[in-house]
Structure formats: structure tokens, C-alpha cells
Predict the structure.
Amino acid sequence: MESRSGQRKPARTQFGRPFWAGISPWLILGAVVILAPLFAWTTLTEMSRQDAFTTRLLLEKGEALIRSYEAGARTGLVLQRWGYLELQKLLIETAQQEGVDYMVVVDGDGTILADSDPSSVGRPYGMDLDLREIARSSRVNWRRVPNTEGADSFEVYRGFTPPPGRPPFGPAGRLPSPAEPERVRELVVFVGLDMTPFEEARHRQGIQSLWQGVLFLLIGCAGFLALFLFQGWRTTRRSLSEVKAFSDRLVENMPIGLVAVGVDGTVAACNRAAEGILRILPGTAGGMKAADVLPGCLQDLLRDLTAGGGTLERELECPREDGRVLPLEALGTALESGDGMPLGSILLFRDITELRHLKDEVIRSRRLASLGSLAAGVAHEIRNPLSSIKGFATYFRERYRDIPADRETADILIQEVDRLNRVITHLLEFARPVTLRPVPVDLESAAGRALQVVSGQAREKNVTVETRMPPDLPAALADPDRLHQVFLNLYLNALAAMEKGGLLVTTAAAEPAGMIRVQITDTRTGIPAEDLDRVFDPYYTTKPSGTGLGLAIVHRIIEAHGGDIRLESEPGRGTTVILRLPSGK
């Protein structure tokens, strides 16, 4: 477009401003400030790498020349009995190779003994170095020696050890005298290498790196400008990505299960908690049909959501394949678009097994407290009359000891009174608060002491007793007498259920949370599943002569220690009692 003066106007955007007007000079300056150090670092790194490569090549070349001269000198001295002139000639010939400026052999005092320039023999050299230390070491050293006539020399030097016998050099090139062999054995060989080709290559590499850096800087600035032009798009996309990542992490790490189902009935999302509750492999639920993933109780909830919409909240009982019932608290909601079109459904659920267990424990604790108070009062009122009854029964047994029938009746009366007294003792023990004197207790010793008490009964019933505890098992923090009572009650219960013999095993292991897990397993008849929740209730017993208080007292003692106890049993296979006690560490 031409103006009236004939000059071309700048191109403008649809908003009336040139397209480049929004580019700030500070952006260009910032790009240069950011990229210039990177360019300098890249260039210096490349030059440093090249210098290191050059140094390694020259060092290897110098070491090879020293080894070559040393090998030739050793061969000549040992096999051909060379003298000083032959060694000097070998030094001159070695130094005539391409790229070698000079070769020098000096003694420990810095006196030149042999030189590729024979006129330098006898002069001092290397006085700024610890030549004696270098002569005793086999390590190869190098340094850069200035050269006023051209490029600097790369000097490689190392100690030179002559073969046993007469040293090859004497002072100032003559043969050594017998009085000075030790001094002249301290020899150092210097090789000066011409660095001109390497300096020229380094110069070319530096220019190439400079141009590469300039090109890199230009490309970087162009990239910054392109990024600026797309800044709005990138910012929006980044914001969307952050929101999506946050929502994905939120869903994945929710402590309750979440399953999203599309309108086609396929699973769109399933978080980690849902996979754990439903026992499905991680990452496999996506894209599967909801009917293949969800249990029947959740499928029913999903169907109700699809039919009626809205939000539903229920407590569900979901049977599992192993026969157990999984209690779930579930909430479902139907998703709709802004115009009312269905988008799918979301199910939120959690396992409330532990919550129900805690509720049952609270109810049970309250019931036990009431029973304990009642039992204490009843026991006190019954024990006094029992003492009188037992006294009269003892009197009649002594009075009618000559009449067998009356004496037998009196004995039965006394035995029943004693049994009632034991029941009352258990009642009182159950009712009163548990007092503890906790100290570190070795569990293997505690279990062994209780097993000694029941060993006779175990032998009579042909029961094999085993204790398996690791030697590094920590001590438990417990009351020794109360712990003995716990073990004794559990062993007596197990033996009472194994009338035809069996196996009684006690194991223990430390847990990470500072607890110790003890398991007592027997091969008795087992306990039905419907009775497992009642075994710790007072007066519940399956033994004709049992009081039903043994496991209730055990439960109170373990809880008083800050531990817990539970039973796992399968009818016909046996029962395992699991105790958890605090560690004494």
C-alpha cells in the first residue's frame, strides 16, 4: 500500500498496530542474557574437551617415545654393552621423529647428561622440579614450556631406571666412576613435542565453535520470539494441564473408592482405592464393562441411578467370591450436561468393615461394663452363703463318714460349692479393673512357663506342642503374671478342644509399628463363623464344665496392655488366636 508521499506504510494487524509492535525490546535482551552464558559455556566446554583430548594425545605420544628410548637403551646396555656415545646417538635418532622438538636426559642434580643437541650436555635443566622425586617415580608428568621461536613445546617427563650394573651415564656425558653410581642412577628423561599442528587445529576449532555459538544464539532468539507469540496459547494449555493433573491426582489418591461409568456402560475411571476394595488389578478396569468390574450390589445402585437419576446413598452388603460379605457405604450420582443430556454416573464407596467393628467394640465394652458391675454385686451376695453351705457339708461328711452314701453326697456338695466359688472368683476378677505392672518380658520364656503347667495334660491327650520364635524377637512390655494368665487360659482352651490329639503351635514376630504379633494355632474342631463374634462375651462357652469367662478375661487383659486380640477359625481345621502386644524396646 502506497502513501501520498510514495513511501510504503508498515503492515498492520486488524487492530491497527504493526504485528511486531507487541514485541518488547526487553524480551530480546532477556533472550540474549539467557542464551549468551549458555553459548559461552558450550563454547568453553567444547574447547576444554578439545584441550583435554590434545593433552591426552601428546601425553601418550611422549610416553611412547620415552618407553621406546628406555627399551632401546636397556637392550643396548645389557646385550651389546653400549657406552655413552651409543646412548647419545639413540637419543638423537629418537628426537628426529616428526613432531619432536628435543629429548633430554638429566641426573638428580639437574645436569644434562644426554641431549638431542649435544652442545647442551653439562648445562643445568629442570631446576624448578624435584628431579630426585620424579626419578624415583614411574608416573608420567607433563608441562607446557614456552618457546620464543614458535609454538610452545608440550614437555613430557618421567623417571628413567637403568638396568642393574654400571649406570649408562656419568656427569657431563662421561662414563661414571665407581664412587658415583647411586647419584647418576637418578635419571629423568624429558621429551619436548611440537604443538604447532595442535595449536592450528585448536584455532580452527575455536572459530568453528564461535560460529556454531552465534548460530545457536540466533536460533534461540528466534525460538524465544516464537514462544512469545504463542504465549497466550501456551498459558491456557498449561493451565488446563495443571487442572487435569490436579484432578487426576485428587481422584487417584482419594481415600474412598471412585468409579466413573459412561452412558455406554463402560468404566471411564477407577481410582486406586476402588481397585483395592474391588480386588482388581491396577490399571485394568478402564474401558471394561461395568458389569464385569462391579459387584452385584453396586450394579443395582448403578441401574437405579440410570433409571431415576439424582443422587442415591446406601449401605450395601456385597458378597465376595470367598463367601465373606463386604459392607460398603456407597453414594452414587448421575451426571448430566448443561442441556440435560446424560453423561454417565459416578459411584463413591468405602469399606466400613473397620467402622462396624469399632461400633461393635463400643457396644460390647458397654455391655461388659454393665455385666461386670452386676457380677460384682451378685458374687459378693452369693459367696457368704456358700461359705456356710461348705461348712455344713464338711461337718456332715465327718459326722457320717461311716455311711458311704451320705459321705458321697457331702463330697459332691463340697465339690459343687468349690466350683461355684471358682465361678465367683472369675466374676470378681472380671468385674474389677485390671491393674498392671508392665516390665520387659521375654515371650518365649512366658509361653514356655505356661506350657510347663499344661504339659501333663498335653501328653495325656497326645497333643504335640511346638514353639517357634526368632532369636532376635524383642521383649514385650507386659505384666508377667497377667501374661502368664493369658497364655495359660488360651492353652487350656486349645487342649480342651483336642480330645483326640493334635498340634499346638506358638509363633511370634515383630511388626513395624512397635508391636509384637503372637499366634497360637491348634488343630481342634474349630468355631462356626456365626459364633466368632461371641467368643469374648462373658458366659459364652461350648464346654459343659466351662464358666465362659476365660476368654473374656483374656480380652480385658490384652486391651489393658494396649494390644488387641482376635480369632480366626475354620470348622474342622482348627483355630488361630492372634495377639498383638506393645514392644518393650
User: Anything to note?
Assistant: Confidence is low (pLDDT under 50) at residues 1-22, 172-183.
